[in-house]
Structure formats: C-alpha cells, structure tokens
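User: structure tokens for this one?
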Amino acid sequence: MPPNTDTDTDTDTDNATDKYTPLLTTALTTPRSTTRPDQPSPPQTTLLHTLESTLQSQPEEGKESALSQQTTAFLAAYPHGYPRAQWQNLISFLAFATKARLVALEDTAVRMLHAALERHADEEEGDGEGLRVLISCAAVWALVMGEELWERRGVGDEYELDGQGVGEERISRETWRLWIDRFQFVSLREDLDISTRELAAGAAAVMLRVG
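Assistant:
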C-alpha cells in the first residue's frame, strides 16, 4: 500500500511550524535597537542566525509555507493582543529577515503600510493605541527595508500596475508618495507620542531616498 503523502506533508508542515513558533515568540520580547532602528540589535542578530539555521535544517518543500502560516497566526491579533513595544520588536525582526531574503514577507509589509497610512479620519477616532501600533510598525518596515521594498515591489507610475505582479502586492509611485506624505504628516501630530513621531519621520526620510 503506497504511503499517504498528503498526511506526510501535513505532518512535516506541522513539525516545521512547531520549530518557528518559539522563534516568533522570542522575537516579541527580543528588543530592537532604538538608537539605530535600521540595524538589528545584537540579540536580534543572534535570533536571525537561529532562524537561518532552522530554515536550512528543514526540507525545502513546505518550509516557507510553514513559516508564513505561523507568522500569519501571530499577526492575526494585530494591532492588538500584545504591547506596542512587542509588536515593534516582532515587526523589526521580520523586516530584517525579509531584507536578508530569509523569508518572503514583502506582501505582508505592503498590506501593513496600506492599513496604517490609508485610514480615513473616522477610523482613527477612539483607537489611539491601535493607531500608534499601526503607524509605528509600518514605520519600522520602512526604516529597515524601505529601499528594498521599493526595489522588489515598486512598479513606477500608477498605470504600470495593470498586468503586472500577479499574485503579489505592488506599489505604484503615486502610492509611495502618498505614504511619504502620510508619514511626514504623522511626524507632526502632537496627539501622538514622540517615539511614534520619530519613527514616522525616519520612515519618510528613508522612503524619500528612492521615491
């Protein structure tokens, strides 16, 4: 009787997921660098090496989907569920891993930037801490790998979007400039704390280099 390959594949994926869960949990509490947010902190560097080793030890088939599955599960509660600092730690770790091409989470980054920077004013009312999480984590993505994100997902002018990037999140130049404007605006909002405003200002500066 031939082996049940579907069951074997499911088991392999479950085992891989089990390996990534502790890494992502640790990333929540592994502090990012606040003085150089565009550089991994020493503890993050160690954790990135651990992720790389874990990925290398897994069968090629299914390891990316297992990590993506677990990352999606962690982000299900976003922007709530964890303190803001822990979200920033996790997003910083994921951004560095994506920048190094250990994982492919560019689509996640694009969606988080959309969610943070294209909200209507009425959506922001009564959601102060949630807004701070959204803005600060979107800024972390831009600070860590804004240039790489444009290189991998930017498509130039708006009309060039048609017929391109099937199955991928893409960024038009118009959207990129909108995000820069929004980050600059947020950096001046006196109702937000200084750390969120500084992250927004830094993100805009990085994005201006390529947009």
